[in-house]
Amino acid sequence: MNLNSRILGSSEKKLVILHGFLGSLDNWITIGRKLEQLNLEVHLVDLRNHGKSFHSKDFSYDYMCFDLKKYLDSKNIKKTSILGHSMGGKVVFSFLENHENYLDKTIIADILPVEYKNSYDNIFQSLKSINPRNLTKRIEFEEHLKNYFDDELFISFLSKNLTRDENGNFKFKFNLITLSEKFDEVLKALKPSRIIDKEINLIYGAKSDYITESKLNDSLQYFSNIKLSVIQNSGHWLHYEKQDDFINHCKKIISI
Predict the structure, then answer these.
(1) What average pLDDT does the structure give for the chain?
(2) Cβ neighbours of residue 172 under 8 Å, at least 6 residues apart?
(3) Mind listing the pLDDT tens digit for each residue in 150-180?
(4) What b/e sequence results for 60-94 when a residue is b if at least 16 CB atoms lie within 10 Å of its CB, and e otherwise?
(5) Most CB contacts within 10 A, which of 43, 50, 146, 161?
(6) How far apart (Å, rounded) are the C-alpha atoms in residues 171 and 133?
(7) Which CATH class is domain 5-116+189-255?
């Protein structure tokens, strides 16, 4: 099975965009359209167990790298720039170990290849405590989420995972069971068998706790050529909070 994607534009110059955990390609359409203006063919991709891509009990960075290589080969893409946010960024870090030759410009958004201690217990509880088939309107799901979260941006993000099946009933796009069971796979550190010296452009939010000096130092032991760009007044969701700034950083990197 191949990954679901949406392709914007047509060009010999390619860009692949990978979303974060519980996200989908839909989160990146606006940014993809703006980057397409650089005469790029932009591939927005749903990772396994997310969006409209296939569901599987197998979930790890190794599996996601396998899927990405298969996707690139199926599209006859020999070289592409790549942008990954959060979990999607860690997929890129992992992909570099064995498939560096596929990648041109590499952009990581607010993540490092280290172990994180984040707890998604509240998120999983909010999702497991409601049966989407019982919903009649999307706003009912948003009202449910307000019992767990104050951040309207995050509520909107989770709400984008609600869709309808062939009978018109609501369902989740993602594979909630596997993702909740295999969440530790998302958090784990990536330690390649060799030092990777390819230039990696890391764009991070000044207010984000995902990027710290100690985490960066740990990362540089394995990925020795990380170039930093900071976006002020933004956190982990920098591509939403400061979208124009984020796009300008990406354009500058890709155009070099």
Answers:
(1) 96
(2) 127, 132, 161, 162, 163
(3) 989 899 999 999 999 999 999 999 999 999 9
(4) ebebbbbbbeebbeebeeeebbbbbbbbbbbbbbb
(5) 50
(6) 6
(7) alpha beta
